[in-house]
Amino acid sequence: MDYFLNFAKGDYVHGKRPEGCILCKLTRGDTDVSNLIVFCTARFGVSVNLYPFNPGHLLIFSLRHTEDLRSLSGEEQTELWQLRNYLLDMLDSVYQPHAYNVGVNMGLAAGASISHLHEHIIPRYPNEIGIPELMGGKRVLVEDPRKTCERLKSYYEDLPFSIRST
To answer: Residues 57, 93: contact at Cβ < 8 Å?
Structure first.
């Protein structure tokens, strides 16, 4: 089997990172991590992914440090479910994707590059992969993640939970 290698991803995985848990630092407002938080609820944060696959690629993360879905309380599981549904509706409205990848990578062997429970919501579109991506080994992004964050911060409708200030 032939493999297509993207060496820039290796730089991210093995590159210099701030000391400590990136999502805990983000929750505390530390300035040595990029803050792309869209909003926070009582139990979860919602952030644009700094290294998105597509515009609107979001992370939902627990505000308390945990690494395992099974550690979430019943209330947290309910809020996560409501939050995920709300964000899918938000992304439908703002980006009109054709499909989604939604999932959790628990542990390094599963692909988690951050040891803090977080769920990805990745909007997907037909014909995403183009020649520059295939030949150049680079993702072509059509929107800066900071722009995505600002776009999504301006959208709140019928929230099933309260937002806390970030």
So the answer is: no
41/22 Cα distance (integer angstroms): 18
pLDDT tens-place string over residues 86-105: 999 999 999 999 999 999 98
Is residue 118 flagged as an active site residue? yes
Taking the whole predicted model, whether its pTM rises above 0.90 is answered as no
User: Choosing from 57, 116, 118, 120, which is the catalytic residue?
Assistant: 118
- Torsion, Cα 70 111 39 25, to 10 degrees, reads 90
Give CA separation, 56 vs 45, 122, 132, in Å. 15, 7, 21
